[in-house]
Design goal:
Strand content: under 5%
Number of domains: 1
Order of helices and strands: HHHHHHH
Structural class: mainly alpha
Distance between the termini: 14 Å
Radius of gyration: 15 Å
Number of strands: 0
Length: 117
């Protein structure tokens, strides 16, 4: 149960952070998405992280919340790729950290999947 509450808190906190520091997330919205939609996407993904993270808490919404988190993790994966591309282009010394972060998405998807039963 500790894992469940930790995951829930992680997504709720991450979702809140979308509103506290949207500039961080604006920088990783894929460049193929028109600029006028970037802030809306950051806000929507933040709301979804909060909502889906909260859904994990209640047994009646846990399975749906876990599946929705899996879908969200897949949907935002291009932003993680964009972060790596941007770090590479800017020769950011933390580039390899962004590359190492990509497989973390698989771990997060697996972790959410454990709550789908």
């Amino acid at each position: 149960m500790l894992s469940l509450y930790f995951m829930s808190g992680l997504y709720i906190a991450a979702g809140i952070y979308h509103f506290v520091n949207p500039r961080f997330f604006l920088k990783i919205v894929p460049t193929y998405i028109p600029l006028k939609h970037h802030l809306s996407l950051v806000n929507i993904s933040g709301v979804f992280e909060i909502l889906f993270g909260a859904m994990l808490i209640s047994e009646s919404t846990r399975v749906l919340g876990a599946w929705l988190l899996i879908a969200l993790l897949i949907a935002v994966f291009p932003a993680n790729i964009q972060m790596s591309v941007t770090f590479w282009q800017k020769k950011n010394p933390f580039f390899w950290g962004t590359v190492a972060r990509l497989p973390l998405q698989i771990v997060l998807i697996w972790w959410a999947w454990t709550f789908t039963h």
